[in-house]
Amino acid sequence: MKILKSKYYLIIAIVGLTSCSKPNPIEVSPELFHKSVDKVMDIQIHDIFSPPVASRIFAYPNIAAYEILAQKSSKLQTLVGTINELKPIPKVDSTQQVNLELSALIAHMEVSKKLIFSEEKMEVLQDSLYKVWEQVNEDEFNVSKAYAFDVVEHIKQYMDADNYNQTRTMPKFTVDIDDQTRWQPTPPSYMDGIEPHWNKIRPFLLDSAQQFKPEPHPEFSLKEGTLFHKELMEVYDVSKAITKDGDESEEIAIARFWDCNPFVSVTRGHFMFATKKISPGAHWIGIAKIASRKTNANVEETVNTYTKTSLAIADAFISCWDEKYRSNLVRPETLINQTLDPDWLPILQTPPFPEYTSGHSVVSGAASVVLTGLFGDNFYFDDDTEIPYGLPVRSFNSFYDASAEAALSRLYGGIHYRAAIDNGLKQGKDLGHFVANKLSL
Amino acid sequence: MAKKLVFIFLIILGCSKEEKTTAHIEASAPFKVVDANVSGLDFSNQLKPDGNLNIIEYLYYYNGGGVAIGDINNDGLEDIYLTANQQADKLFLNLGDLKFKDITVESGISQDSTWSTGVTMADVNKDGLLDIYVSKVGNYKGLHAKNELYINQGNNTFKDEAENYGLDFSGFSTQASFFDYDNDGDLDMYLMNHSVHSTHSYGNIRIRQTSDALSGDVLYENKQEGEHIKFVDVTNGAGIYNSPLGYGLALSTSDVNNDGYIDIYVGNDFHENDYLYINNGDKTFTESSAEYFNHTSRFTMGVDIADINNDQGLDIFTLDMMPYKADVFLKSGGEDSDKIDQIKASFGFEQQYARNHFHLNQGNHFADVALLTQTHATDWSWSPLILDYNNDGLKDIYITNGIYKRPNDLDYINYLSTVDFAKYKESEADEIEYKLINTMPMLSLPNVLFTNRSELNFEKTPVDANNLATYSNGAAYGDLDNDGDLDIVVNNLNEKATLLENTTTNNNYLTVDLNTENLGINTNGAKVYLYANGKTYLNEQITVRGFMSSSSNKVHFGLGEVSKIDSISVVWNDGTKTVKTNIEKNRILSIKKEITSKFEFVKSTKSNFETFNYSHEENNFLDYEREGLIPEKLSIEGPSVVQADFNGDDLEDLFIGGARDQEPSLYFQDTQGNFNLQSNSYLENDKIYEDVDATAFDIDNDGDLDIYALSGGNDFPEGDPMLEDRVYINDGKGNFIKLNSKLLATNGGSVSSADFNKDGYPDLFIGNRSIPGAYGLTPFSFILKNTGNNNFEIVSKARMGMITDSKWADLENDGQTELVLVGDWMPIRIYTYNLEGNFEDKTKAIGLDKTNGMWNVVHVTDLNNDGKLDILAGNTGLNFKWKASIDKPVKMYLDDFDNNETLDQLIFYDYFGTYVPFASKDKVMQQIPMLKKNFTTYAAFANVQDVLDLVDKKEILETKYIYELRNMVYFNKGNAFEQRALPNEAQFSTIEDFYVDGKEIFYTGNTNSYVSELGRSTSNSGGALKYSENDNFNSVRTLNLPKHFSGRKILKLKDGKFLVIGNNDKSYIVN
Fold it and tell me: What whole-number distance in Å separates Cα of residue B985 and Cα of residue B955?
């Protein structure tokens, strides 16, 4: 992070020095896009968006930036006609000196602002950049900004029609406490099931939320010898075994690294508060950033990577949430507390939605396919995404290695049965291949 | 977790603001603060938080200390012991004239700074001298201590003999009470301890059965062997929980069921129930809170037990933490959501609300009347003391409050959540914790005094003109200057203890001393009855009251203007009685235990009802999961009940319509008065409907009664076949056939019939309750003319209100019938049938236009026998969180504020003088997410007082009001109605039905339909009122229906008994 910051100041310094003579074109580096994405991520954490909602917040700003750049790009194909219901953005006026990269960045920040609550946090970034740009080349900045705002308005209308607002006040998920098979709120804060209507959100590439409906989970049974019971016992036994090995065990390290729970409740006496982290989607956006940087991607390539990864992630959440509230399966914590061990605690806090399939598995599966399509298989990287949250760096030989580990982390964490992980990863990868194919990767 | 905090954030936020509240000066109670420099009562419980011990490390760090008042040297002057958490406790000798001397050092009281909590004075060894028991927190985060029993050695010296006596417990003690649990004449001890654990989950209530040596409560029996007194742990097998689930903060021991055996009340913090241990008389107890209370305080912190309303039943007052300042209320954590409520119930926890509870003794159970008396919100409160401070014969309530650091401030909780724990280094732990604590908001408040103005009216009275804002915890009372009134000592945090001198002079009193003449005899628990002026006053000699404290063991009676005391009888624990007559007032009366007679304890009256063979079973539909801002469920209506002769044998039969998935039932009455269930395939086929009302009328004019069954429910959209009404045609013998006809499919509210046009065919009114899914909007209701051949013609289709009940009656005495309607958010509405054949709304003309309530039922009857029909109407009652008047109505704004095609209901009500939004910030933001951008903090939301503060919308679709929440009578005075509220006894809960029997009005009520923020309305166990002269009513009896029972219909049977039919419950026959 520190390195990033100094680079960014360096650019400003150079720009500042040369600004007294004839106006120069404003340069937009890929780092500024990373900066904007990082900012969105920070604000997401502050405003506490649930994982599905966070995935939506990543997608639209990228689409705006992508479509602006695609107009004059030989490499980027417009998404119009590929993603559902998107209409062509307003055309740039070629008589004006619009800097498309600059417009793309401005649009990225502006669309992001519309999606988050703490706008002032985004404005801090915008203000500092705008001030510099005004000094470097006021005319270019103004026309580029004006054009960006036209596109922002267009994208706003597009996103307003995705049914998000309607789903805000749809009925809450009704819990049937008497039905042992069904999901119930879990300790410690017993939150309502989040986003029970997420399958009603318009997908970007899927023809419907159930396009990648996974095979059903093993039939619920608490009888010994049944597959479901075996998987339940596996969660319990694995958790006990690795807890015995202690905090230093590899499994616990993996579970924590991939926790990605944006809202972990902590209770201390009269206090009940939350510790916050990035969501699974955000973690993979972070990996997209690492890959972009590692390959010295230019602005176009960077935006391309962010856009396609975020579209895959967003659709993965829609697909996964569709299954979650179809199968409504009870979490291991509930069953273990009821039938095996009232004091058992999973290593990770159980997130507030039904068990099947594992969201992290689906999302990781989808993102890893798209990233492999973009950067190739056997792409080695050091994943430092979780450093700000006190977790170490983990290194992977490929995106698939990372997604396999992310999926398995849910078993170690004690929050998913094996089927949700295996079938979830398959669901995600199938979806990822479909998306990659549609996006011509 | 707290060990991982970053402090960059903290610096930005800076330190917390301290709010000081001082109310404006008004007529205050006759209390004078006596300065410590003058009195010598120089004590302050100073806290010095450090890295090992602070509010983050110990959740009860700011619970403060206690006070004990008692005469340790038998000189007739009450002495004072004060406990400190991090310094030495102090003992003060009363020198008279409110001068005190610190004798701590010479008395032999320990000078260490162990963490003392509660203190109790009692003559443990029966040597005639008061001993002192001090509870401690030991074995926790560097705290090491054992509880101490200071045995009085005479000459104002004490020696800790806890170990000898077996009372040197070391754990997390809050308070102890000495009382005689087995009536063997010696003092046993209940030690209340508290858990210190943070809870991960509500867990299973099975934990209650486990044992915890540090935090579990302990019952000790005093087993004297010769000279040697040994207290033995008898918890096991005595029915006392000893588990880590108990967060015991409140303790009192009192014979609440008046059977001669002392019971125990333990108030627990957090999710654990409060315990009411009823003494079985055989050295065992039965925890009976679920049997005795409809609900209890959630974060119970203090308790006192006394007969507050002078009916000789001991009432229980418990404290919680509900703020009374609107802005504090809006930014503090409040009631559980309905979902959490449900989850806790499924774990087996009883219903609890985060507000004070005033449990009024009803004989075999208690009815909480805190909302009615408006004593429910005194902020973070610790010590309730029930005492008659102004000697007017009515017991008042003094409450200490204040929390030094307020961890339930929602912005603070949010702030904690933004602290990045990971960046925080282990070595900075203490510093960070310290800063975290510094950031925590503070709020000091003046203590609260409720002056009893009789008949359950209480007035909040400032204690002194300066209205000192303090952080006050333990408190105790006693007549410290022997001037006949009770003075109060309060232990404050980080401030001097307060000595309140009572300067009352104008009333009479009597102080009864049961100790001086009975040295060496245990008198704890004796009941003193004082008879004067035709009234009976009861006081128990108990000392452990309030919080961590024990008050004087003298029994004080305020007597007001009583000129002569007729007699006093003291009922001792062993069931003997001493009676005294010829008593002079205004003095201390010492009574020696001389047996005059044997006392017969009157056991609480057992219920006088039997079960009727019908149970109503509701389907489980949670309206508020669809409509997040509504105040009540509309899907738990019914059953509908019709009493009429269906089979032509001149005996009244019964039709009872069921809830969804329950068929309607038809009962024929036989000559013995039995009701026999009839089989009817049409009814059996119609179980899919939720029956909300029904009426019997002769639709086809063939001389028998047919049935119109009104369907309802908020779970299906209007027009859905699941909401369709039905008509059942009678063949004259009670064989009903379903009429094949398309009827209304709406969420019905009420159906009634009358032949308004006098053509021989009874006509119909069909009133609707709501538009399903759009609470608040007014649905159409219909007046239908019966045109023969089972056909109806619409005479009127209008939006008349959210109808719950209707009656046809000739209010104007002109031979023309009027239609009287009641419902939610609407007035008592009167339509009159005019000569043009139309219905005209006369509500305003008749002066009833400002009667909007949450009406459940209306009856029209001539109550005062003046030949004019009066209106009797059942509402929410006054025991309700909302308050309403014409000046300060409850307001509901209806619109789609965020244009997402969903109706939003924004309700505002008057909260102790300020309008507040009914829905919490979280709820409002969930319903209208765009507002999150405008209200990023709870503090910002705390200033919202009007709909315009919330949304920028000048033209709002519809606004509705409630002006009246009382259960009412409107007397017909010809051209106008004169309103009169029913007495307070009939305001404890909703009234859902009346039966008027001559001059007596029987009523039944209660409902579970309100969301948890309003709470269940369950304090009405049914009752009867009698009309007396001048349009007044007296409460004459309670029906003692089971706690929680929601009576929807009360009928008189031919043997004179009453049948009460409940919602989602059994039905009962009451004598």
Answer: 42
**Contact B940/B924 with Cβ under 8 angstroms?**
no
Taking the C-alpha atoms of residue B469 and residue B462, their distance in angstroms, rounded to an integer, is: 11
Which residues of chain B are within 8 Å of residue A48 when distances are taken between CB atoms?
Answer: 417
**What structural domains and CATH numbers belong to chain B?**
31-406+441-513 (2.130.10.10), 526-598 (no CATH), 619-799 (2.130.10.130), 890-959 (no CATH)
Pairing between β-strand B763-770 and β-strand B781-786 as defined by DSSP bridges: antiparallel
Which residue of A lies nearest to B409 if distances are taken between CA atoms? A271
Which amino acid, residue B21? T
Whether B1069 contacts B669, CB under 8 Å? no
Is-contact B526 B539, C-beta < 8 A?
Answer: no
Which of 891-920 (B) contact A at CB < 8 A?
A: 898-902, 904
A339 and chain B in contact, CB less than 8 A: no
Q: Are strands B442-446 and B18-20 parallel, antiparallel or unpaired?
A: parallel
Residue B320 makes CB contacts below 8 A (sequence gap 6+) with B297, B298, B299, B300, B301, B353, B354, B355, B356, B357, B381
Q: Is the dihedral of CA A132, A136, A138, A139 positive or negative?
A: negative
Query: B932 CB near a chain A CB, below 8 Å?
Result: yes
Tokens of B583: 């008593």
Q: What percentage of chain A reaches a pLDDT higher than 70?
A: 93
Report CB contact under 8 Å: A118, B407.
no
* Residue B411 confidence (pLDDT): 87
Q: What is the ipTM of this complex?
A: 0.77
Whether residue B711 contacts residue B720, with contact meaning beta carbons closer than 8 Å, is answered with no
- Say whether pLDDT at A240 is over 60: yes
The H-or-E segment that residue A405 falls in is helix A399-412
In 3-state terms chain A splits into helix, strand, coil percentages (rounded to 5) of: 60, 5, 35
CA B902, CA B629: separation in Å to the nearest integer?
11
Closest CA to A385 of A284, A263, A237, A305: A284
Among B59, B622, B900, the residue with its CB nearest the CB of A165 is: B900
CA distance B2 to B4: 5
Q: What is the mean pLDDT of residues A421-425?
A: 98
Whether B421 sits inside 8 A of A390 (CB atoms) is yes
What span, in angstroms and rounded, lies between the C-alpha atoms of A311 and A288? 12
Binned average pLDDT, 10 residues per bin, chain B of 1071 residues = 34 40 60 96 95 87 97 98 98 98 97 96 96 95 95 97 97 98 96 82 78 95 90 97 94 96 96 96 97 96 98 97 96 88 88 97 93 98 98 97 90 75 59 82 93 96 81 98 98 97 95 95 96 96 98 97 95 93 95 87 71 91 90 93 96 96 96 96 96 96 96 93 96 96 94 95 97 96 94 94 98 94 98 91 96 98 95 98 98 94 95 97 91 92 96 94 98 94 96 96 96 95 93 90 92 95 95 86
B925 near A CB under 8 A: no
Model pLDDT, residue B249 = 97
Query: Which residues in chain A are contacts of B628 at CB distance < 8 A?
Result: 169, 172
Q: Smallest CA–CA separation between B285 and chain A, in Å?
A: 28
Of chain A, the end-to-end C-alpha distance in Å amounts to 30
What is the per-residue pLDDT for B230? 96
User: Does residue A169 sit at the B interface (CB-CB below 8 Å)?
Assistant: yes
Residue A187 contacts B, CB cutoff 8 Å: yes
**Residue type (1 letter), B487:** D
Q: B661: closest CA among B617, B621, B692, B613? A: B617
Tokens of B197: 């654990």
Query: How far is the C-alpha of A54 from the C-alpha of A164, rounded, in Å?
Result: 12
Amino acid at B864: N
Domains located in chain A, CATH noted: 27-165 (no CATH), 198-438 (1.10.606.20)
